[in-house]
Amino acid sequence: MLTPGELERYDRQIIIKGFGKEGQEKLKQVKVVIAGGGGRRGVEGRAMTIIPGKTACLRCVYLGLIPEEKFPVIGVTLAVIGCIQAAEVVKYLVGIGKLLTNKLLAYDGLNMKFAELEVARDPKCEHCGYLRGKDDSEY
């Protein structure tokens, strides 16, 4: 179980009660980033799971600078992408299903369609290329 110090350490992270000792032990070892861009452009959103040093990061996918622009954010899009991100956390902690690793899930709320794009980790990526991890194929 998590100690009081560990609970404080994770106070801004997701802790899902009821996972028991095994789930909490896995949480203590986690080095996974669940990333998404919900509402990036109104009714469009994106999600992917990043395991640093093992799978593609956002810089591997989006080369160069991402332009900052003001665009209305639709709350429902945030909810859709947020639910996908929450499902990724649960799948990772419980050890079930297939994660969105080396994949970018794009959501088109205007036409109610999802597209899954394969992405690859760039070993020369300025952001994550120096990290060394296990073979990406196991994710």
Structural topology:
Blueprint: H1 4-9, H2 20-29, E1 33-36, E2 44-50, H3 58-61, H4 75-94, E3 103-108, E4 113-118
Antiparallel strand pairs: 1-2, 2-3, 3-4
Question: What would your notes on this structure say?
Answer:
- The chain is of the alpha+beta class and 139 residues long.
- The protein has a domain at 39-122: 3-Layer(aba) Sandwich (Rossmann fold), CATH 3.40.50.
- 29% of the residues lie in helices and 17% in strands.
- The chain is built from four helices and four strands; from the N terminus they run ααββααββ.
- It has helices at 4-9, 20-29, 58-61, 75-94, and strands at 33-36, 44-50, 103-108, 113-118.
- Strands 1-2-3-4 form a four-stranded antiparallel β-sheet, with helices on one face.
- The chain is globular.
- Residues 135-139 have low confidence and may be disordered.
| Overall outline | globular
Distance between the termini: 27 Å
CATH architecture of the domain at 39-122: 3-Layer(aba) Sandwich
Strand order of the largest sheet: 1-2-3-4
Average pLDDT score: 76
- Rg for CA atoms: 16 Å
Fraction of residues in helix: 25-40%
Counting helices, strands and paired strands, the structural category is: alpha+beta
In CATH, the homologous superfamily of the domain at 39-122 goes by the name NAD(P)-binding Rossmann-like Domain
| Count of individual beta strands | 4
Low-pLDDT regions: 135-139
H/E element sequence: HHEEHHEE
Give the count of helical stretches. 4
Main sheet attributes: strand count, strand direction, barrel closure = 4 strands, antiparallel
Annotated CATH topology of the domain at 39-122: Rossmann fold
CATH class of the domain at 39-122: Alpha Beta
**DSSP strand content:** 15-25%
